[in-house]
Structure formats: structure tokens, C-alpha cells
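User: Quick sanity check before I run a bigger batch. Here is a single chain. Can you write out its predicted 3D structure?
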Amino acid sequence: MRPPQKQSLSDTFFVEQNSLKLKTLRLTFLLFAVFYGAFVFTDPRSFPDAWPFIVALRLGVVVPSMLSIVFLSYHPKFHRWQQSLGSVVFYISAVFVMGLFVFGPTSFLYYGALYILYAAGYFMIQLKWIPATLTGIAVFITYLMFVLINQSGFSEQLLMHVIYFLFMNAFGSFGVYTLETAQKNHRYFEHQLTQTNLNLKQINEQHQEKIMQLSELVNEKNKLEQDYELTMEAIEKLNQVESRYQAFVTQTRAFVYELDLEGKFTYVSDSIQEILGYDAMELIDQRYFYELFPSELALEFRTHAFSEMAKESRIRDFKNPLETPDGQIVWVSSFLDPHYD
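Assistant: Done. Predicted structure follows.
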């Protein structure tokens, strides 16, 4: 199951904007429904013979159509029908007043009502440019049909009415187009701004990650520097100990050596040069210890030494002869401590 995604600030803004638009739309249609219902008292005076029919249209068709928008706006899929339903209600309410204007007595009340209806249809009920323009043109065409039915000839007053309605349609259409374009540009700008914020956030996260990596590298570098300093200090101390050890060995006329399990020299101190005349590098990894014994005693000492080594015995003050490179015999006292890696 996928975890719920967090809503971004941009998404929250659009949700709040849509909620505000729906509240405004409901309030608009509710006010117009009250407005239409309130003027029902004028119908008997303006249409003394047909007022029941006019009242039936007003309260049975026009007002319910407006209230239907209010109720349907609570449906979750209302946005799919909003433009169509708004256009139909705009047309019904405008045609109703247009009929009163054409067939009823001359009244400035109808002029004002038509002006308010056109303003509402284009700017207040949230119709887009194409639905609003088409509905406004349909209302104008219906007006011409009413005029043809009600009048037989052309008059100057009719020309003024036609110009007036054409101007309102042109003004409303241009206004809605301008507002819609501005809204599209605003949404595009907000989309770009949101995308820029996301990109900046990603870049910031990448920088933060690099900073953390750099911090880890700095910490590791500092640790290595500390380890290096400790190592150098240890090497320096080791060199000091080695120097003192070599000096001690030289002063005591002794040499130190290490052997592997086969008896080969793996380390020999430089003091062997003074005592036996051998260069230490000539012996290390080159010669075996028993090769320094006189040839007639080499096998005996070799056997004894390997026997003690196998038993891991410690040899103390073992007197044995060693032969120098020029064949001289030097007696030494050997000490052996076994150590295994």
C-alpha cells in the first residue's frame, strides 16, 4: 500500500481557491434566485392578462434553475458540468427577462435587469470565454426572434436596442477573454514558480548531501592526520629505542639475529660486522645459521639447535664456536628465545 503523499503548498493554494470560487458561485446564484423571486409582485401589474403564466415561468423554471446550480455545486463532479449548466441557466434567466422587455410595457427596470444579467453571465457566474460568448450571442439571437414576433417594422428604438445588446456582448466577451488570458498567465506563472521552488529544493538537498559528504571527508581527514601523527610519534620512539638498542649491543660486543623455521637469517644486527666480520645484508635471507659453524661441527650444532627449536626451549649461555669469513674461530655465548608469528 502506497503511503499518502503530502500536499504541496501549491496544491493547497489551488484547493483553497477552488473552494472560494464555489462559495462565490453559490452566493451569486442564491442572490439572483432571491432577486428573481422578489420581483414576482411586478408581474400582475406589468402583465395583467398573462401574469399567472409569467409567475409560473419565474417561480417554476427560472428560480429553480438557479437553485439547482447551488445544490449541484456540492457534487464532487460538478466541475465537469459547471460550464454547461451555467450557460443554460444564463440563457434561461436572460431570455426570461428579454421576453419581459420585448413583450411587456416599457420600463427602465428591464434595462437594468438585462444589464445586470449580462454582467453576471460574463463576469459573475464563472463561465469561460467560449461558453459565455456563445450564450450571449444565443440570447441576442433570441431577442431578435422576439422582436420579429412582436414588431412588424424597423424603428430607431429597435436600432438602439440592437446596438446596446451588441455592445454588451462585445464588451462582455472581450472582458472575459482578457480575464481568462490573465488567469492562464497567472496559473502558468504559479506553475513555473512551483517548479522553480521544487528545483531549488532539490538543488538545496543535493548541496546539503554534498556538504554532509564533505563534512565526513573532513572528519576522516582529521582522523587520518591524528593517526598519522600518532604513527610518526610511535616510529620516532621506535627509532630512538632501536638506536639505544644498537648502541647497547655495540657496547656489549653482542649481535642479535632472528631465524625462520628453516634456520635462515631474517634479521641480523649491524654489530656482527665488528664481532665476526660479516656484513648483515650478506646474511639476511641469504645464509643459514649453521653455515657459520666450523664445518666439522656444523651438523652436530644444527641437529642440537633444531631439536631445541622444535621443543620451543629457551637456550641460555650456550657456548659455541663460529667461523669468520677469513677462517678464524670465535667462541661466543648464545641465547635463544623462540617466538612464533
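Residues 1-16 have pLDDT under 50 and may be disordered.

User: Great, the batch can go ahead then.
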